[in-house]
Each structure stands twice: as C-alpha cells, then as structure tokens.
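WARN no homologs supplied; continuing
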Amino acid sequence: MKHLLTAALGRDEAIALLDSAEDMHEVQSHQLKKLPALRGRTVVNAFFENSTRTRSSFEIAGKWLSADVINVSGSSSSVSKGESLRDTVLTLAAMGVDGIVIRHGDSGAAALTADWLAASHPQVRVLNAGDGAHEHPTQALLDAFALRRRIHGTASRGKGLDGVRIAIVGDIAHSRVARSNALLLPALGAEVTLVAPPTLLPTGVETWNTQVTTDLDAAIAQQPDAVMMLRVQLERQQGAFVPSVGDYILGWSLTDARHRALPESTVLMHPGPLNRGLEISSKAAEAMQSAVLEQVTSGVSVRMAALYALVAGEDQA
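OK structure emitted
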C-alpha cells in the first residue's frame, strides 16, 4: 500500500489492516505507550479543516509509534497568505517528511496531493483524513474495527463482518463517513442500508452496494445489528434540505422511543461530534449499546496501523 486515499479496499487488505490495529490496540493497555516502529520518521498532520478526534488521534498514533509529528493548520500556514495547497504540500515534502496526513474541505484534495508528490517526492506517503464530502477512509476502518470487536470480541482476528446488518442514518448526501463505510463495510461482508430524507440522499446512490430507504422506523423494525447515526452537516448544506429541525427529529432521529424499539444487542454508533437531541438522544448515546467512545479509542489503533503500513513499509526507503 503506497497511500491511503479511499476506503475502497479489498477484503483481505482491509482485514489485514484491522488485524494490525488489534496489535496496536494492545499498546493502549501498556503503562509505557510507545513502539519504536517509526523512530526517525517524520509525519505532518496538515489539517485545513477543524477537527478534534481525527487530528488528535493521528497525533497520538504517530507519537506512540515514535514518529516525529508536526501539526500544520490552515490558519497557521502560508495558505492563509494566499499560498496554493500544491505549493504548501511540495514545501512540506521538500523538508524531508515521510508522511502527510491531510484533511481538506475540497473533495479530491488527498488524491491531488498524492499526484503532486508522485514525480518529485515519491517516497512521501499520503493519508486521507477527510476530503470534503468525498471520503474518510480511516473513519470507516475504525468503525469496522469497533463493530468487529463488539460482534466477535477477542476472537476478531482474521474475521470480517459477514452477514452483519448495519443501518447508516442521516445526512448521507454530505457525509464522507457514509461514502467510505458504503465502500468498506460491504467488502467485509456486511449488509448496509442507508436511511435518509429524500433530499439528503446523493445522486446516484442507487448504484452503491447498499440498500436505500427513507423510512427509519421500517429500518429499525428489521432489527439491525448496528445503527450508525450521522451528524447533520449544516456547514456543507446550502438551502433547506428538510422543512424544519422538528421534522428531521420526527422522521430520522434516534429518539428514546426508537431506541427502545431496537434489540438490546444492537450496537449504536456515531462518528461524532454529536448533536444531542437532533440525530440521537442523550439516553441512546450513553446506553450500554453505545460504541461511540469505543469508536474514538479504536481511532488511535486504526491510525497507528495505517501509519505503520504506509510509513514503515518495505518500499518506503
């Protein structure tokens, strides 16, 4: 693997990453959370969008692997002075870094970064930490990792999510999390149903390897193994996609009543940050079924595995 730009991975490749994340997960129980795997390597977290979970977990992941980690934000970089993203990326690569983790508001920014580096700095690895409404591959991997551990427990290694039924609910149209999960989860054998208001379903969604419905109550009646609620991404929306907040809650929120209608075994998920009371009730978010904080913990393990796979790879030198 040269770069991680998309969640469109083969089953074996995805399971190998998840199994590596299992190894990395054990580090979190150590008193000294440190591995020498990336000693002498330098990773830049170039975040041109705000982030708490993704940026912090990539930073922790790099440091626990003993890499030198440098954080660059849009507001503190020369981009704020008018420098193009291309020039910023090539400048960072010219400093001798080994990996660039990039988060950007434009779809395709990560792939462009890899293309710009291909000729002059082919040794630099690129990890997509979210590009616009396009993809967020490590989020899909951590979601799969957390869910796999809930389903299979300590016997997760080597296993996919065969036959596991997952409903992904909410703002599908603007969600890079939904897109990446719709690519990764079926590759692992899961059966995915996308649930959203008609106005929040993207064009061409019928070609995705998923089922699609606008009826959340009908999806809940199918008793899915997991329900993943998505944040309503108001910052990416232009225009009124639902008549009102009240209408959205009535039709597509995981309310207390809908939570009670789910089996106790159903895993409740959310990529965060949560808009409590809008996408999910506080009671559901904090229920025993909730894997929200497990997803956060899983993010460090998965990002350690991704950094190790790319930056410590045999073809890195």
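The chain has eleven helices and nine strands.
OK
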